[in-house]
Design brief:
mainly alpha; 187 residues
């Protein structure tokens, strides 16, 4: 019986690593993807991975395998002698998941325009008349495309936008006359 025909559970860690390096289909499929599946199930319960974009089993397992290939599986050799290969692989998979979750969290932290406008630390002051004209054209375009030129929503949106623009301009001019920041002046 050859090593490739052996039950994967009977192989030593060194034989498994050699099978990874040689891209032995049986060893990679049964051992690597088998233990990655176990790890995925564990971390899916904890982090609800299956409902997050790019966090399905195959995407993560393939990314992990390719990362190990790039470094000739050296990360799997750098384990303590008392730790089994399968435990080390599951821990490595965990670090991949945590890195991906961290990246996903950063991506989701980007503020929407509504959130940014609600943020009192950010100024949306209009300083010059050229921008005011561009602002007016943008509002008209939004009203025409989304609401229809003569709808009630369109009129309300224009009034709100122009009132807000005038208030900000008056606060800005009052502040500059009094040498205060525009946020110090309330309408």
């Amino acid at each position: 019986m050859e090593k490739t025909d052996k039950n994967v559970a009977q192989l030593t860690d060194d034989e498994i690593l050699e099978g990874f390096r040689n891209a032995n289909e049986h060893i990679v499929k049964e051992y690597f993807y088998g233990y990655c599946r176990v790890a995925y199930c564990i971390y899916d319960r904890r982090y609800d991975l299956q409902y997050k974009p790019g966090m399905d089993f195959y995407s993560l397992a393939h990314e992990y395998y390719l990362a190990l290939c790039r470094h000739d599986f050296r990360q799997l050799e750098d384990r303590k002698t008392s730790m089994s290969l399968k435990t080390w692989m599951v821990n490595g998979f965990r670090f991949l998941v945590l890195d991906k979750l961290k990246g996903l969290k950063k991506e989701q932290r980007k503020e929407s325009l509504e959130e940014r406008m609600g943020n009192t630390r950010i100024n949306f002051d209009v300083q010059d008349d050229v921008f005011a004209g561009d602002f007016r054209n943008t509002i008209d375009e939004i009203c025409h495309i989304y609401y229809g030129r003569d709808s009630k929503n369109s009129t309300s949106f224009r009034c709100f936008s122009w009132r807000d623009l005038r208030e900000r301009r008056s606060r800005s001019s009052s502040a500059s006359a009094n040498l205060l920041s525009p946020n110090a002046i309330t309408a």
